[in-house]
C-alpha cells in the first residue's frame, strides 16, 4: 500500500481562513475508495479521506435533508478531523447547502452559512454564493435581509439584481420590486435580461399598474426580449389580470415559441375575465396542437371554468382526460373535478369521487361540504362535517369549513348547530377572523337569535364596513327592519366607518319592509350625492322601495331613467305594478319589454298572467300563455299555476282543469288554484271533490291561519248561523282582521241584524279607519234600513278623512280591446246607442217577469230617480255594448270591481234567457254564469 504524503504545515493565520488542501496520488485515492476493511497487520493511518469525498458527502446529506449534518461537516476547523476542500470545492459545498436551506426554508442554518461566507476573505465577494444567499433570504420570507445583503456587496452583477427583484416579487412586495427595477435601469451598468422582465411584469400585475407594465413591455420590444417565452408568458398573465384580454391575445398570438405555461396563462386570462367559452376553446386548441400534454395547472384552470358555466359535458371530458393522463389521483385535480360536478348539480357523481379518494385534505372535505351547503341540503352538510371530524383525525375543520356550514343555517331549528359552530370557532381562535364573525352574525339573525347576533357583533374589536353590513343585512333580510335602520343610524353616529353600496342596499330593503317612504327619499338623496345611483342593484332596491311604499309613479320615473335595464329591473317594475293593482300598466310594460328584445323570465310571465287574471281578459291571457310556451317557461310550477289561475279567473274553468291535469308535479299552490277556481265559479261539488283528492295525496296538515278562520266565519255568517260565527271569533288564537268584520257586517245587512250590525260596524271602522271601502260598507248597511241620518254621519266622517268611494266600474273585452264603464257614464260616443239597446232589452225581460229592484239604490232619492240610476249601472252598460259588438252565440265576459247588486243579477239572468247567450260576470267576490234564466251561484252571493 502506498504511503500517504503528509501535508505541509500552515501558518495559524492561513489555517484560520481556509482549510489545508491535500494532494494525494491517484493510486492512493483509489485504494482508499475501494478498500473496505484493512488487515490486522496493516497500520491504520489518521490521514483524512480524499478531497472530493467531502463534497459528495455534503451533497448526500443535503439530498437526504440532513442540513445540520452537512453544516457540521463544513464547519469543522480541526486539522486532524477536517474534511479538506480547496477553494472551488468549498464554494460548491456552500452553494449546495445554501440551496438546501432555501428548499427547506431553514433560515437559521442559512444565517450561519451567510456568516461563513461573509467571514471568508476568498469567498466574501463570491457572486454566485451571494446571489444564492439573497435568494435564500427571499424564499424564507425575509426580503429586507436580502436587500440588506445586496446593499453591502462590493461586487455586483445582474444576477444579484435579479435575485433581489425576484425576491420582492416572490414576497408580493410589488412596489419594492418596481423601485428596484427602476434603480437597475437608472444604474446603466447592467441591462435587464429575460430573467428580470418576468419578475417586474408580475409586480406590475400585482399592484395593478398598467402604465408601468406597458413601459416594461415596450422595453422588452426594444431589447428583443419580448420573444422570450418566459417574458411572453408574464405579459399574457399581466394583461389578463388587468382585464385587457385583447392585449393578452395579441401577445400570445405573436409568441414565436410557446410552452405549456403559455397556454395555461392564456386559459387563465380568459377565465379571470369571464370569457369562459374562449378559455374552453384555448384548452381544446392545446389538445389539438398535440405537441404538449396538459399538466395539473391546465386541468385546475379549465375545470372551474366548466363549473362556472355549467358545462358538465366539457367538465366530464376533462375528468376523463385526467384519468387517461394519470392525474386523477392528484389532490388538486380531484378537488377541482368534485367542485365542478357539485356546481353543475351532479352531487352524486362528486360524492362517488369523494368516497373513492384515498387521500383527503381539508380542501377536499371543504369542497364537499360547500357543495351540499350551496344546494341547501342541511342534513347532508352536517353529516359530512361529522364524518370529517370523526373519521379523518389528520384533518381539522378550518375557517372555510365554518363559513360553508354557517351558510346553510337559516332557520330557528338550526340555532343549536350555530351555537356549536360558534363554540368550535372560539376554541380554535376563528372568531378573530372577520369573515367568520360576520357569518356568525348572519346565521344568528337568520335563526331569529338577534341577541346572539348582536353579542358576536359587539365582540368584534375593529368593526369594518363588512362587519356593519353583516349585522344590518342580517336584521333587514330576516324581518327585523326597524332594528336594521337603528343600527345604520348608530353606524353613522359613530362615524368611524362610511357606508358602502351594500350597506345602502340593506338599508333600502329594511325601509321597504317598513314602508317608510320619507326615510327612503332621504336615502335616495344620499345615494345621488355620493354617486351610488350608478350601481344597478342600488337602483333596483330604490325601485322596490317606491313600489312597496305604494308609489309606483316614482318607481316608474326611476325605471325610465335607467340606461341599462336588466332583466331584474323589468321584473321588479312588472311585479310592482301587479302589487299596486295596476293591471293595464303591467300589460303595457310587458309589451314594451318584449319589443325591446328582452326575453321574459318566470317572474315577468307570472306578473303579466296575474294582470290578465285581474282584468279577466281572456284573449290577452291566451297570448301570454303562448308567450310562456314559446319561452319554454311552462315547466316552472309558478308559471303553470299562474296560467291555470288566469283561465279560472277569465271564466274558463275547464281549461284550468285541463292544465292542472297535465302538471307533472302538483304542489299545494296548484291544488289551491283549481279548488278556488271551482269555488268562485259556484261549482262547490267539484271544489269539495278536489279537496278530497288533495287530502288523499297527503297534502295536508296545514296550521289554520287568519284567512282560514275568515273563510269559515264568512260561511257561517252567510248561512245565518251568527252565534256559531261569533263563538269562533271568540276562540280564535289571533285578533280578527277587517276581512272578518266585513263578512259579519255584510251578513247582518242581508239578514237584518241591526243591533249586532252596529256593534260590528264600530269595530270595523276602529280596526281600519283609513279605508274608504269600510265606510262604504257601513254606509250601505245603514242605507239598507233607510237610516239616512246615520248614512250622512258615516259619509261625513269619510269626507273628513279625505277618502272617496270607488265608483262602480265594469269592463268587457271585445276583439282584443277593453271597454270600461262607470256607473252613470254618459260620455261615451256610443252612449245613446247603448242606452237604447238596454231599453229594448228591458222591454223583453219585463215580458218574462223582470221587475226593477230599487232597494239596490242606496240613496235617499225619489223612486223615479232610483229607476234612472238602475239603468246606469255599469254592468248593464257593458252587457248592452257586448250585444252590440259581438255576433249571435258569442259568450259575453264582463268584470266588475264591486259586488253585483240584486237588480243587475236578476236582469242578467233574464237577458241571457231572452237573447239565448251565456253571460259571465265576475264581480269582486265570484263568477256568475248566466244561462237560460239561471245563475251558477244559485242566487247566493
TrEMBL record:
This is DYW domain-containing protein. Keywords: Repeat. Residues 849-941 form the DYW domain. It comes from Kalanchoe fedtschenkoi. InterPro entries: DYW_dom (IPR032867), E_motif (IPR046848), PPR_At4g14850-like_plant (IPR046960), PPR_rpt (IPR002885), TPR-like_helical_dom_sf (IPR011990). NCBIfam families: PPR. Belongs to the PPR family. PCMP-H subfamily. PPR repeats lie at residues 157-192, 228-262, 361-395, 464-498, 566-600, 667-701. It comes from the Eukaryota.
Amino acid at each position: 500500500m502506498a504511503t500517504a504524503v503528509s501535508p505541509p504545515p500552515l501558518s495559524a493565520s492561513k489555517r484560520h481562513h481556509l482549510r489545508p488542501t491535500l494532494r494525494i496520488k491517484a493510486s492512493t485515492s483509489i485504494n482508499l475508495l475501494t478498500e473496505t476493511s484493512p488487515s490486522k497487520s496493516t497500520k491504520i493511518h489518521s490521514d483524512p479521506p480524499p478531497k472530493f469525498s467531502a463534497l459528495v458527502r455534503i451533497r448526500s446529506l443535503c439530498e437526504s435533508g440532513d442540513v445540520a449534518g452537512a453544516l457540521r461537516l463544513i464547519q469543522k476547523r480541526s486539522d486532524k478531523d477536517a474534511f479538506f476542500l480547496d477553494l472551488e470545492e468549498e464554494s460548491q459545498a456552500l452553494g449546495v447547502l445554501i440551496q438546501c436551506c432555501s428548499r427547506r426554508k431553514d433560515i437559521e442554518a442559512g444565517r450561519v452559512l451567510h456568516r461563513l461566507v461573509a467571514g471568508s476573505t476568498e469567498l466574501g465577494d463570491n457572486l454566485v454564493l451571494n446571489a444564492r444567499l439573497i435568494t435564500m433570504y427571499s424564499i424564507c420570507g425575509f426580503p429586507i435581509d436580502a436587500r440588506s445583503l445586496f446593499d453591502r456587496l462590493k461586487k455586483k452583477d445582474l444576477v444579484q439584481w435579479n435575485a433581489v427583484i425576484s425576491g420582492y416579487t416572490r414576497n408580493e412586495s410589488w412596489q419594492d420590486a418596481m423601485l428596484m427595477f427602476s434603480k437597475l435601469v437608472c444604474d446603466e451598468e447592467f441591462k435587464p435580461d429575460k430573467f428580470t422582465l418576468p419578475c417586474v411584469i408580475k409586480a406590475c400585475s400585482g399592484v395593478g399598474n398598467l402604465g408601468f407594465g406597458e413601459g416594461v413591455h415596450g422595453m422588452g420590444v426594444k431589447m428583443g426580449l419580448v420573444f422570450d417565452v418566459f417574458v411572453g408568458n408574464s405579459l399574457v398573465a399581466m394583461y389578463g389580470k388587468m382585464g385587457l384580454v385583447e392585449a393578452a391575445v395579441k401577445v400570445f398570438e405573436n409568441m414565436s415559441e410557446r410552452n405549456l405555461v403559455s397556454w395555461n396563462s392564456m386559459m387563465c386570462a380568459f377565465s379571470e375575465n369571464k370569457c369562459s367559452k374562449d378559455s374552453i376553446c384555448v384548452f381544446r386548441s392545446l389538445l389539438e396542437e398535440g405537441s404538449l400534454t396538459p399538466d395539473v395547472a391546465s386541468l385546475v384552470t379549465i375545470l372551474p371554468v366548466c363549473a362556472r358555466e355549467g358545462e358538465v359535458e366539457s367538465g366530464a371530458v376533462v375528468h376523463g382526460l385526467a384519468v387517461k393522463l394519470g392525474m386523477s389521483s392528484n389532490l388538486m385535480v380531484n378537488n377541482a373535478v368534485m367542485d365542478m360536478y357539485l356546481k353543475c348539480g351532479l352531487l352524486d357523481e362528486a360524492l362517488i369521487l369523494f368516497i373513492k379518494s384515498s387521500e383527503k385534505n381539508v380542501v377536499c372535505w371543504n369542497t364537499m361540504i360547500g357543495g351540499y351547503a350551496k344546494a341547501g341540503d342541511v342534513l347532508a352538510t352536517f353529516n359530512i362535517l361529522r364524518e370529517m371530524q370523526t373519521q379523518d383525525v389528520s384533518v381539522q375543520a378550518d375557517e372555510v369549513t365554518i363559513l360553508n356550514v354557517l351558510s346553510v343555517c337559516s332557520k330557528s331549528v338550526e340555532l343549536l348547530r350555530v351555537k356549536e359552530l360558534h363554540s368550535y370557532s372560539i376554541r380554535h381562535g376563528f372568531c378573530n377572523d372577520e369573515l367568520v364573525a360576520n357569518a356568525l352574525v348572519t346565521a344568528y339573525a337568520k335563526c331569529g337569535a338577534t341577541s346572539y347576533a348582536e353579542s358576536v357583533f359587539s365582540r368584534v374589536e375593529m368593526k369594518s364596513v363588512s362587519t356593519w353590513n353583516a349585522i344590518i343585512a342580517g336584521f333587514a333580510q330576516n324581518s327585523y327592519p326597524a332594528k336594521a335602520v337603528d343600527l345604520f343610524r348608530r353606524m353613522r353616529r359613530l362615524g368611524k366607518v362610511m357606508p358602502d353600496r351594500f350597506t345602502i342596499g340593506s338599508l333600502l330593503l329594511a325601509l321597504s319592509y317598513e314602508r317608510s317612504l320619507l326615510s327612503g327619499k332621504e336615502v335616495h338623496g344620499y345615494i345621488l350625492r355620493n354617486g351610488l345611483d350608478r350601481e344597478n342593484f342600488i337602483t333596483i332596491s330604490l325601485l322596490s322601495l317606491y313600489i312597496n311604499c305604494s308609489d309606483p309613479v316614482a318607481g316608474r320615473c326611476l325605471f325610465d331613467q335607467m340606461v341599462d335595464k336588466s332583466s331584474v329591473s323589468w321584473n321588479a317594475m312588472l311585479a310592482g305594478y301587479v302589487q299596486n293593482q295596476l293591471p293595464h300598466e303591467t300589460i303595457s310594460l310587458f309589451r314594451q319589454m318584449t319589443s325591446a328584445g328582452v326575453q321574459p323570465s318566470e317572474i315577468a310571465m307570472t306578473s303579466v298572467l296575474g294582470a290578465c287574471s285581474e282584468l279577466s281578459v281572456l284573449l290577452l291571457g291566451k297570448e301570454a300563455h303562448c308567450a310562456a310556451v314559446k319561452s319554454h317557461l311552462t315547466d316552472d310550477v309558478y308559471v303553470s299555476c299562474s296560467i291555470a289561475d288566469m283561465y279560472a279567473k277569465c271564466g274558463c274553468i275547464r281549461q284550468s282543469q285541463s292544465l292542472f291535469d297535465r302538471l307533472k308535479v302538483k304542489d299545494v299552490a296548484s291544488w289551491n288554484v283549481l279548488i278556488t277556481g271551482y269555488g268562485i265559479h259556484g261549482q262547490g261539488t267539484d271544489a269539495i271533490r278536489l279537496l278530497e283528492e288533495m287530502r288523499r295525496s297527503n297534502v295536508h296538515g296545514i296550521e289554520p291561519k287568519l284567512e282560514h278562520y275568515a273563510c269559515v266565519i264568512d260561511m257561517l255568517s252567510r248561512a245565518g248561523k251568527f252565534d256559531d260565527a261569533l263563538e269562533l271569533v271568540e276562540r280564535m288564537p289571533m285578533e280578527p282582521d277587517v276581512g272578518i268584520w266585513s263578512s259579519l257586517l255584510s251578513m247582518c245587512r242581508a239578514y237584518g241584524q241591526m243591533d249586532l250590525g252596529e256593534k260590528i260596524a264600530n269595530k270595523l271602522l276602529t280596526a281600519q279607519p283609513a279605508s274608504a271601502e269600510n265606510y262604504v260598507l257601513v254606509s250601505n248597511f245603514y242605507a239598507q234600513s233607510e237610516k239616512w241620518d246615520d248614512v250622512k254621519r258615516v259619509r261625513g266622517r269619510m269626507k273628513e278623512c279625505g277618502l272617496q268611494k270607488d265608483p262602480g266600474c265594469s269592463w268587457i273585452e271585445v276583439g282584443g280591446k277593453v271597454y270600461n264603464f262607470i256607473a252613470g257614464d254618459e260620455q261615451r260616443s256610443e252612449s245613446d246607442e247603448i242606452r237604447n239597446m238596454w231599453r229594448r232589452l228591458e222591454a223583453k225581460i219585463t215580458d218574462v217577469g223582470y221587475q226593477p229592484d230599487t232597494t239596490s239604490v242606496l240613496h235617499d232619492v225619489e223612486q223615479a230617480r232610483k229607476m234612472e240610476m238602475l239603468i246606469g249601472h255599469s254592468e248593464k252598460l257593458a252587457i248592452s255594448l257586448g250585444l252590440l259588438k259581438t255576433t249571435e252565440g258569442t259568450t259575453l265576459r264582463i268584470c266588475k270591481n264591486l259586488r253585483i247588486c240584486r237588480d243587475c243579477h236578476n236582469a242578467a239572468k233574464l237577458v241571457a234567457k231572452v237573447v239565448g247567450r251565456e253571460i259571465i260576470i265576475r264581480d269582486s267576490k265570484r263568477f256568475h254564469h248566466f244561462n237560460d234564466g239561471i245563475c251558477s251561484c244559485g242566487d247566493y252571493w
